Amino acid sequence: MNEWLRNSHLESEGIDYEGQIEEELPSLGSVTCFYNEEDIAGETLERLNEAAEQSELYETVYAVDDGSEDNTAEIIEHYAEELENIEFIEMEENTGKFGAQKAATDIMDEDYWLTIDADSYIQNPEDIDDSLMKFDQSDSAAAMLNMEAETAGDGLISTAYEKMQNLEYSMRKGIDDFTSNGNESKIVTASGTATLGKT
Fold first, then answer.
1. Among 144, 160, 193, 194, which is least packed, fewest CB within 10 Å?
2. How far is residue 63's CA from residue 191's CA, in Å, rounded to a whole number?
3. Concatenated DSSP letters of 156-182
4. Per residue in 120-140, pLDDT tens?
5. How large a percentage of the chain has pLDDT more than 90?
6. How many CB atoms lie within 10 A of CB 7?
7. Are 72 and 36 in contact (CB under 8 A)?
8. No. of H helices and E strands in the chain?
9. E strands of the chain, at which residues?
10. What domains does the chain contain, in order, with CATH numbers?
């Protein structure tokens, strides 16, 4: 990358980053925790690595094996050796999702973290940089990302699933608003399949 960003795909309405040197730009690391996910771990890591390759700000995919009893750890280790953006973290025993995520955020050097479930992926990698730049200029500490279900066709089942998912996110947002106790609260809650936060 050039020292000064020119003709970058980061350009977005309302964001003035022209002239910023590379060191001043925010960086992003994602955290995905795996527990007995040998069937999907490989595909998830390939998609996340591809998203990181398409981004100028998304630097590292932290893949945490949370004490799996199957071959998940071996699969993650293989992909970490083969793919440049994958960082493998192995927990000796199952600590639960929060413990595994904390193990990754404790060691990451990036400015922001993005948690992504093991069965999810970034559908539009080209939007990562614009979104992160906007978030970087806000006062928010965390944000919940609305995930879109990958369903087959436009039939009744697909429509019903999407409505159920929208209802779930609406309810979670209501709970988050209630527990946050207004703008002056020191408590940050962010539910969802993916959460973006400041390190």
1. 160
2. 20
3. HHHHHHHHHHHHHHHHHHHHHHHHHTS
4. 888 888 888 988 998 888 887
5. 42
6. 7
7. yes
8. 5, 6
9. 28-34, 58-66, 86-91, 112-116, 142-145, 194-198
10. 26-147+183-198 (3.90.550.10)
